Structures are given as structure tokens and as C-alpha cells.
Amino acid sequence: MNSLQLDKRLDTTEQVVEEIMRIHRSLPPRPGLDEVEAATSLIQNVEKEDRAWLEAIANQRKPSDVPGELFSILQEMKKGLVQFKSKEQIREAAKLLDLETVHSLFDDFIQRASDCISSPSNGSAPPSRLPPRPPPTSLYLNEKTPARPKEMVSRDDSFVSKAKPSLYGDGFVAPPRTPQVVDSTLTAGKFAGGNDGDKLSLIKLASLIEVSSKKATKELNLQNKLSEQVEWLPDSIGKLSTLTSLDLSENHIVVLPNTIGGLSSLTNLDLRSNRITHLPESIGELINLVSLNLSGNQLSSLPSSFSRLLQLEELNLSCNNLPVLPESIGSLGNLKKLDVETNDIEEIPYSIGGCSSLTELRADYNKLKALPEAIGKITTLEVLSVRYNNIRQLPTTMSSLSSLKELDVSFNELESVPESLCFATALVKLNVGNNFADMVSLPRSIGNLEMLEELDISNNQIRVLPESFRMLTKLRVFRAQENPLQVPPREVAEKGAQAVVQYMNDLVEARNAKSLVVKPKKSWVQMCFFSKSNKKKQSNMEIV
Questions:
Q1: Which of the listed residues 148, 228, 229, 524 has the most CB atoms within 10 Å of its CB?
Q2: Which contiguous run of DSSP H or E holds residue 205?
Q3: Coiled coil: which residue ranges (predicted)?
Q4: pLDDT grade, residue 46 (50/70/90)?
């Protein structure tokens, strides 16, 4: 209230005019029309969003080791927090609407003051005007949905052209307000307040959505741009029907609204590094989605509607809490890259064979005990990585993986590598190192993998390499540390891949040469003994 300066002397018209201008300028910047519209929409939809939050809390599963009463207390506290934050958002929206109301009221005062200044100075009364609109009841700290005059949220700016010419610089009249239409191609930081480091509040986000909707925006990047208080998206997100790319990564989002399904043109959705616990069924309405990144969240299941994302080519589900993959994953016939590493998955469903376009499958850091035989149906597969699991053996159907170039099954419990794998002749990189069972040998026909360039067998119990190893002429990286190698000797293995290949080649050639040496003829003593023996047999036959 210090800005009132009640003790200031105002003896002349100029001093009064200057004081009126000072008070007018002391107001915070006027919110944009889209911000006003967004704040109004937020207050009107707060109950619906509260219901979505409470439903999400109710759907959370109690861990088996947590007492029911303790988990119930946690849920009640979460519900209380939702209600508190909801009221906090209402207060923020109401404060913005109050500021718009004050600006509108001051506009009337400025216009009346302008009429006084422009009146003839002959003492005649100033032209009569309608009294200013009385200020509505304050909305600040009001938890009820405010009733606001339509003109406050109207997009009609015809009042601007009807205003009198501006005299604010030379005389007095405040410049007419022009709608603040923000270019949605700017960064979200600039929209928030001019600095890239600024974060969007829920109202600012809702305002940006309104602007983007009216401008038919195609790409929206909000990576790490939302304030920590923004844990859900406003329902108005569904208005962005022209959007093709949306990046909401590295924020604090917990819940997605059902209206997310309204983004009918979306092809790229990045939600990585948030705190999303479940996905709405409406996610399946994004039928044009090509790339979906959900890594680094808290998902424990996927909705059944996932099977409708038939155009999906890249799906990243890494770093979540998924115990299983749904059978519906096999419906994604266009899927090319699937990343499910760092979850709690114990089994990949047999339906994975339906992903007939898959080229890359990463399932590291899970609890897999085996791979399904159906993996052999994915003849397009080029990269298969299942490090840090509990796999004991590989399926024999891997012989059908004619396109496989990289296979990493390190840090598992493999006891052996099947001979059938050696029919996957396109292999370039093979890692079977660091298995915790006693892997004592490699397949005899490993030489069939003539394209192999990198081979890791480190930290196993292999003593002898198969003779066909000599055929790996393209091998340039060979890791065999911590194996009790005897053939080749350790000092040869330490010289590198081609030294090992050459050693095995020389060894085989030496053995072959030795086996081809002609056996010596019988000595004259042996021949004489043989001759006497035959004569004796013949004499016995004559006596008979």
C-alpha cells in the first residue's frame, strides 16, 4: 500500500495527472487474453481434474509386503495433497482474474480522466459519462467458480478500434490494449516470462495450449519447462488436434488426462523422465503415433488399448516398474525398435513373434529366465540385447535370425551356446561373457560366423577353442580374459584376435599334415614270417 502516497501534496492538475499515471503504471503487467481464458477454463475444470487424480490414487496397487492400514494412510494423505494443490491452483487463477478486473476498471478511470483533460477550460462541466463498472466481488482466495463478464474472456477486440487516440506519451490517455498473441514457435521459457530458465505454471501452460490451438501449432517443445507444481496436464491439451510432435520430457507429470486422445495428428510423443504411474485408455486413440518414449517413469502396467497403436515404430518403456509385457505387444506389426530394459519383466510373451518388422530389441536388466521360441519368427531382427538377466539357455530357433548382427547375452547364467546359433551367419558382434554358470566351450561350428568382427567370451571356464575358430578371418576384437585357456595359450590370446585366428589355423594345418604322412612298408623279417606262415597253412590243407 506504500504506492498510495497519501501524504503527497497535489495542488495542480498536472500533479494530479502525474499521480494518476503513476498509480496506473504501478499495477503488475496485464495478463494476456489467452491467459485470462485459460485461467477461467482451469477453474471451471478443476473438479474434473480432481476426479482424475483421485481415481489414479485409488487404482494404485498395495505392495504385498506393506500393511493395509499403512497403505491406506498413504492414500488418504495423497488425496489431501490433491485437494490442497487444487485450491492452490484456484487461488492462482483467481488472482490472475482479479488482476484483469483491476486493469479493466482502471481503463475506465483513465478514459474518464482523459475526458476531463480534453474538456473546455471555461469552467463548464465535463461531458457526462456512464459511471464506471463496479468492481466485482474479489475472487482472490475464493474457492468457488467465479462468474465473470463475458467481455473479460472474449476474443473480440473490437473495443480497441473504438477507443480514442492515445495521448499517453504527450497527454494522458492510456494506449488501447491489444491482444497478446504469443508466437507458439518460441521457447516455453520465453512464453513464461522472457528467460529460458523460467518455468511454466499450470495457468501459463493452459494459456500456451490456447495459443497453440488457435495457431494450429504442429510442434511443441516443453522439455524441462514446467514448474514442479505442474503434476498434471489441463484437459484443454486435447484441443491440439493439429499437433504432430509433443515433447513433455523431464518434468514432474504424474497423470495424463483422458483428453490426450484428442491429439489425433500426433506422430511423436516424448514423456520420458516424469512420474507417470498409469496411462489412460485414450492413449490408444493416438492412431498416427510413430514414436512413443515413456522411459524413466513409474509404470506398472500398460492399457489394453496399446494394441491400437498400429503405426508405432519406436517404443521406449525402459526404466519403469513393468512386471510383464502384455500379449497385445504382438499386434504392433510396424514396430521396429522396442526398449524394455531396467524393469522387472520375467517373461517376454510368445506374441512377440507378431512384431514382424522388429529390428532392435533391448531387454537388459530384467528378470528373464528364457527367451520365447517365437523369437525365431522375427527374421528382421538385427540387434538383440538381454544383458543382466537369468537366462540359462538360448532357443534353438535363433538359427532363423538371418538378419541378426548383434547379440549380447552377457551377465546371465548360460551353460552353453547352441550350435544352431552358428546358422545366424550375419552376426557381427557376439557377447557371451560374464556368465555365472560354468560355460566350458563354444559351439564347434562357430567358424560359420564368417562375418564376426567382435567376440567376447571373458569370465567363463573355456579351456579350448574349437578348430573352426580359424575361419573367423574378419575378427578384430577378441576378449577372453579370466578364462583358463590352454588352446591357444594365454600369451597368444593376449596378442589379439588375428593372432588367435592364425594360431588356430596353424594348429589345424599341422595336424592335417601329420595325418597325411604315408605309413612305412613292412620289413623283410615281417615279410619272411608272413611267407612261412602261409606255406605252413597250405601244407596242412594238403594232408587233410
A1: 148
A2: helix 202-214
A3: none
A4: confident
